[in-house]
C-alpha cells in the first residue's frame, strides 16, 4: 500500500515545519486549516494525561479496534507476540504518534502502561486514543505525551479487539490518515492533513507572531477597534516592533 | 485474504440452517448465543425501514466509513465508478447483507435509494447500517429488508468517507466479521458468528417449537410454575402433542 | 411494610376516578399535577408497543433490576420458579400495572412475551419499563397496553438482575411508589401520586370538558384572545352549551 | 428590523419555486445545498407526527424558548393573551412555518394541540420544533404538517419560557433565520437560506428528473457503471426520453 | 427594552450583598434558592479554567450564539469591529460577568484568550460559557475567573454565530436574565435571579456561619443527632460561641 | 436479611487480603476478575475528589436514591434525624465504603461535606457515588477517599430521595452487593464480588510483582517479544531476581 510505505520511509516533515509546529498553538493551526476550508480537524474530548508533557508533534501511525467478542478476545491471546496490538506497538517508528480508533468507548482501556513504555523506548512522539488508557498513574510519570478520553483499569480485551494498523481511521470523529501530522497542546489534539503541513506550519508561525503582538497591545489596554484585527496603523507598528528584534 | 475469499466462494449456510433462520426469532437466537457465552450480539438501536419486509437472513458483506474531510469528499468523487462505495455495492453477491460501519453517526446518510435498488437487483438479502439512509420513502417501497439508525436527506459525503470493504467492522458496537450471519426481525438485527450458525440455527428451531407450546399453555391460563420453564410433566405433554403433528 | 400491604389490600381508586382517568388525556393530568407543584410526573422516552391499545390506567406494582453479573445471571436461574422476576409476575394483581426500573438500559430486554401473556391472564392493566421488551411482535398482538423504551431480542439476564419488588423505584427518572396510579395514552406514561389521584381525576375531567369546548371554538375560527383561556363571556357560552346536553 | 419586515410583507417565493419545492425531495435539496458549500442544513432527529401529511414548504417564522423558572412560569401566565407564545401564534401568517427553538429538550412540550389548531386556521404551512408537542393524538388528526423531536404531555411551562420571536435561532443545531425556507418530507426537515431558495428549487427539479430516469434504469437491471452517475451515452438517452414527454 | 436599560444603569448589588456573595458557598446559596422554590439554578457541567481564581461574583451580561452557516461565518467577518462578538465584549462593564449561550456545543470555542484579556482590562468579573474556550493555557494564566464546558482550539466561526446580546438566554439549561447575579466557586456556577439577590445573600451568610459551627462539632466527633440539623441545645451553644467573637 | 447481618458482623477480609488490595492496582485486579469471567466490574466515569488520597479499600455499604418528588422532598425533612440519608451515614461502620446509587444523575449532589466528615469520624474507608457531591472544596481537604461523577452545589433533595440502604444496587452500571469489596486508585473504582476477594487479592499481588519486573525490562529497552508476556527464559530471570530479595 502506497500510504504505508511513504510513512515507513518517513520522508516526513521538514525540520523547519517540525520546529514551527512544536511551538505554535493548536488554536492558531485550526484557524489556518479553517482558512483552507477544513472545519473538522479537532479531536474533541481528549485530555492530556501528563499535563507537564502535553506538547506533541508527530506523524500518525494508526491502529484500529472493533468491539471484542467473548470467544475471540480472551486473556490467552496475549501469549501471541504477533497479536495485532503488540505488532502495532513494535511497528511505530521514531517521531510517530500512535493514533487509536477506539470508537469513543472507554469502559475498557485501549492501551496500557507497559506498552506505552515500549513506545517511548522506540522513540515514539506520543499516543492519541479516543478511548481510555489503563494504569493512568504510570502514564502520568511517563515522558511520553498521551491524550485520551479517560482512564479505565479494565484490559482492552473486555471491550476492544485490535484488528489492523496503518489504515485510515476515525479518531474522535476526525479522519486520520497514516502520515497525517498530529499536534497536541493544552487545548487538545488536532490532525493536519499531510499535504498541508508545510504551508500551515509556516503561516501559523507568522500568524502567531502577529497575535502575540496584538495580545501585548490588549494587555496594555488597547481597545479591540484598530487592534484586533490590526488595522493598517497597527500592522505598521507590528512590523516596526518586529524589525527591532 | 482468506476470509474474503471464503465469503466470495460462498460455501455459505446449509439449506436447513437458512430455512431455520428464516423463521426463528432473534429473541430465541440471542438466547442460544448467550448459552454459548456471547452476550453482545444485538445491534442496538436499528429499526426496520420497511416494516412489512423486516425478516432478513444473509451473510455479512462489510463496508467501512470514516469521517468525511471537506477537500476529499466533494460531489465530484461520485464521477468515479470505482469510488469505494460504488465498488462495494457492485461486489455484494446474492444472499448477502451489506453491513455498514457508519460510527453511529446519522446527521448524513450512509446509503441512498438508488444504490439500494441496485443491491436488490444484484440479489442482496438486506442492508444494515448504524447510520442513516436517505430517501427513506424510497426504502419503504423497496422489497429489500433495511435496518438503519435513522433517516437523513443529506448525502453521505457530508459526513462519511467510504474507505474499504470486507474487513471486520463495528456496527452498533457489535463486531461483524465478513461472512457472519445477520438475522433481522421486529426486535432488530443480530449477528451470529459464522462458525456457530449451523448449530445455533438447529437448536433455536427446537427451542422455539417448545416455547410455542409453552405460550399456548400460558394463554390457556397455566401459571408459570410447572410451565415456564416446563417441568418433567409439561415436557412430556409437549412431546406428546408434537408427536401427533 | 405498610405500603406493600396497602397495595395488596387494594382499597384502590373509586370507580368514578378510574372512569375519569380512563378518558382524560395525560396532557390534562400533568397540568393538574403541575398546578399542585409537581413538575416531574412524565416518564419521558417510553412508547406504546401496541398502538391500538395504548390507553392504560392502573396501580403501580414495582419491580427493580440492577446490572447483571456473569456468574449470577446465567440461563439456569430460570429453572427456579421463585426467581424474583417470575415471582413478581405471579404477584401482580388484577388492575395493576407492572412498572420496571431497568435503569434506562435497553441493550437487553427487561421482560418477554410469555411473561407478558401471563400478566394479561392475571388481569394486569399494563406494563411500563424504562428498558426494552423482547419479542416485540408478540407484544404488538397482545391485548395488554405496554410502554417501553425500545425492543431488544436479548434475554434480560445479559444485562439485568431482578432484585426485588414493591419498593419505591425510579422509572425513566420519575419516582414511582407502589400503589401510585399509572396512566398512559398517545403522549406516553405519567405517574400520579396515590393520594392525589381522586382529586386530580375529578378536576381533570372538568378541565378537559372545557378544553373540548375551546377547541371547537378555535376550530370554528375563533382567535385565542377571549377564547384560550376563556374570558367571562366564553365561560358563559360554555356553561350554556353544556347545560343543553 | 429589516428581516422581520421582509417576512411580514412576504414578497416570498416565486410560484415556480414554491411548486418545485413542493415535489422535490429533501435528499435532492441537500445535495444542491452541499454543492453550494452548505453541509449543515438538515434538522436531525425530528419526525413527522402526521405521516400522511408530512410534505411541507413555507417561510420560517421563528419562536425562541429558554428554560422555565419556577417563579415566572406558572399556570396563571396563560391568562395573559399577550403572553409571548400566544402572541407568536397569532402573528404567524399564511404559508409560514412556525419554527421553535426548544433547545432539544423534550421532557415538556413546546406546543399543544389547541394552538396548533389555531395555526392551521391562520393558514400556517407547518410546525417545526426540536422539542416535543403535547396531545400528539390531536396532531395526528390535524391537517397541518408537524415535525417534532417527540411527544410529551407536560405543559411547556414546566420546562420552557417563550421569550421572543422572529430572531435568528438554532433548531436542532441548524441556524434558522426568519424567512428561510423550511421543507419537510419523509426524511425530515431542512432549512434553505432565503437567498438561495429560487436557484436551489430550479436546479433540484432538474436533478430529480434526471435521477428518476436513472432509477428506472437501475430498476431495469443497469449496473452503476455508465448509469449512476450517467455517462455521455446515458445522458443522451435521458434527453431523448424526456423529449418525448 | 426595560431589562436592558436596568442593566445598563447598573443600580447593582448593595456592597453588603456583594461582600456576602464573595465568601458564601454556592452550596449554601442553592439551598437558599431551593427554600424559595427554585430548584434549577445550577449551571451543570462547567468547570473553572483557572483553579486558583475560581471565586466569582457579578451581574450577568448575556451573549447568544446560534449555529454557524458556512457562507456567513467566514474568517473575514472578524475584519468588522462591530461584529456582534466584538461589540459584546466592548460592552461588558466593570463587575459584570459575560455569560454565553453556546447551546452546550464545544467542538469549537465560543471565546478566545485575546478577547478574554480585553474583558479583564474592561473590569469584567468573569466569563461563563456552556461551550468551550480556546487557548486554555492563556486562560489558566489570566486573572479572570472563567467557567466553561471545555477547551477547543477551533475558532468559534466553525460552529457558532454570535447573534445578539443582553437578551434572556439559556446557559447550561438554566435561564439567565441580564442583570442576574452569577456566583462561581469550586462546585461550579449558579445564577441568582436579580430580585432575590439581596435577601439570599443575607440569609446565606447566616446559614453558612451556623454550618461552620456545626462542621466544627462534627469534626470533634459529635453525632448527627442533635447536631445536624442543630437542636435547641446546639443552637444555644452556637449563639453563645458566636457572642464571644 | 442475611446479607445485611453478614455485613454487620463484618467477618470481613483477611488481613493479608486487605494488605494486598491496598497496594495492587485496579488494573491488575480487573484482569484477575476477567480471568474469572467477570467483564463488568469497573464503575466508569467516577473521579477522585482528593487526588492525594485516592487509594481506597473497603466493604460496600450501599445506599439507594430514587428521583425526588416536590411534595416529599422539602428542606424540612432534614429535621428528622432518622431521615434515611442520616440514618445510613450513622450506620456505616469502620472500614466500610459508602456506595451510593444516584442513577448517574449529577445536577444535584448526593452527599455533602458535613456528612462526609461524619463518615470520616465513624471510621469509614471511603465514599463512592455515581452522582455528585457538594462543597467539593471541603472534600478536597478531607482525609477520606471520595470518588464521584462530579460536583454540584445543589442539595440532594432537589433531585434525589434516599429510600433505603444495604440492598444490592447499581452504581455506574455495575452491580454492587452489600459487603462486596470496593477498591479505588488513579484509574477509578472497581467492585470485587465478596466471595472472590481473597483469591483475587492473592493472585493480583503475584501478577503485579511479575509485571513490575517486566516493566523494568521494557524500561531497559527489551522488546515485547520474549518479555511481555514473559517467555520461559524471562520467567526464569524473574524467579532468580526475586529469589535475591
UniProtKB/TrEMBL annotation, chains A, B, C, D, E, F:
Q: Which reaction does it catalyse?
A: oxaloacetate + H(+) = pyruvate + CO2; 4-hydroxy-4-methyl-2-oxoglutarate = 2 pyruvate
The protein's job, in short, is:
Catalyzes the aldol cleavage of 4-hydroxy-4-methyl-2-oxoglutarate (HMG) into 2 molecules of pyruvate. Also contains a secondary oxaloacetate (OAA) decarboxylase activity due to the common pyruvate enolate transition state formed following C-C bond cleavage in the retro-aldol and decarboxylation reactions.
Q: Which UniProt keywords apply?
A: Magnesium, Metal-binding
Tell me which Gene3D superfamilies the record gives: Ribonuclease E inhibitor RraA/RraA-like
An example of a GO molecular function for this protein is: metal ion binding
Q: Which family does it belong to?
A: Belongs to the class II aldolase/RraA-like family.
Task: Report what the protein is called.
Answer: Putative 4-hydroxy-4-methyl-2-oxoglutarate aldolase
Which residues take part in binding substrate?
112-115, 134
Q: Which domain of life is it from?
A: Bacteria
Main enzyme class: lyase
Q: Which residues bind Mg(2+)?
A: 135
Q: How does it assemble?
A: Homotrimer.
A Pfam family: RraA-like
- Where in this protein does the record put region Disordered? 222-245
Keyword Magnesium in record: yes
Cofactor(s) needed for function: a divalent metal cation; Mg(2+)
User: Carries keyword DNA damage?
Assistant: no
Q: What's its EC? A: 4.1.1.112, 4.1.3.17
